[in-house]
């Protein structure tokens, strides 16, 4: 962590598949107007191995109770540094994040490194139903 007021991430009950991040214990909180977004620095440093990516997602309690949605949150393979996230207020009214409140969850996934290849033509060889075919028989 880069600041003494930063809060350690946690894993709920030690068996959850996600890592919870919290709003820092500083000042009186963060007000987010309806429809607006804010960038929040958690002051937590992460170091992901080359084969892992982190995806910051909503905590169900935060989106359902407060209407705050995580808008951006991809942490690339091999990243090392502070973790920031973007929260948008979709609640319909002004909202406030209080110090110590959970704000997001990070899920870890195996990162694949695709290669791209430029082609001059596209061969339409996929097996798809004709446009006028019946999809379901009832």
TrEMBL record:
| The entry's keywords | Hydrolase, Magnesium, Metal-binding, Nucleotide metabolism
SUPFAM superfamilies, alphabetically? Answer: dUTPase-like
Q: Name one GO molecular function term.
A: dUTP diphosphatase activity
Q: Name one Pfam family in it.
A: dUTPase
Q: Cofactors per UniProt?
A: Mg(2+)
Q: Pathway, per UniProt? A: Pyrimidine metabolism; dUMP biosynthesis; dUMP from dCTP (dUTP route): step 2/2
What CDD domains would the database entry show? trimeric_dUTPase
dUTPase-like domain: from which residue to which, for each copy? 31-130
Give me the reactions it catalyses: dUTP + H2O = dUMP + diphosphate + H(+)
- From the UniProt record, give one GO term of the biological process aspect: dUTP catabolic process
Record-listed E.C. numbers: 3.6.1.23
Q: Which family does it belong to?
A: Belongs to the dUTPase family.
Q: Which PANTHER family match?
A: DEOXYURIDINE 5'-TRIPHOSPHATE NUCLEOTIDOHYDROLASE (PTHR11241)
| Its job | Involved in nucleotide metabolism via production of dUMP, the immediate precursor of thymidine nucleotides, and decreases the intracellular concentration of dUTP so that uracil cannot be incorporated into DNA.
Protein name (record): Deoxyuridine 5'-triphosphate nucleotidohydrolase
């Amino acid at each position: 962590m880069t600041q003494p007021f930063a809060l350690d991430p946690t894993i709920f009950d030690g068996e959850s598949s996600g890592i919870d991040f919290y709003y820092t214990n500083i000042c009186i909180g963060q007000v987010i107007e309806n429809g607006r977004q804010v960038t929040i620095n958690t002051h937590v440093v992460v170091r992901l191995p080359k084969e892992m990516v982190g995806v910051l997602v909503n905590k169900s309690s935060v989106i359902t109770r407060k209407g705050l949605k995580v808008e951006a949150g991809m942490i690339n393979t091999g990243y090392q540094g502070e973790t920031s996230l973007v929260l948008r207020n979709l609640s319909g009214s002004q909202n406030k994040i209080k110090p110590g409140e959970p704000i997001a969850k990070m899920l870890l996934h195996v990162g694949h490194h695709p290669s791209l290849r430029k082609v001059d033509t596209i061969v339409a060889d996929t097996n798809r139903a004709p446009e006028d075919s019946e999809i379901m028989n009832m």
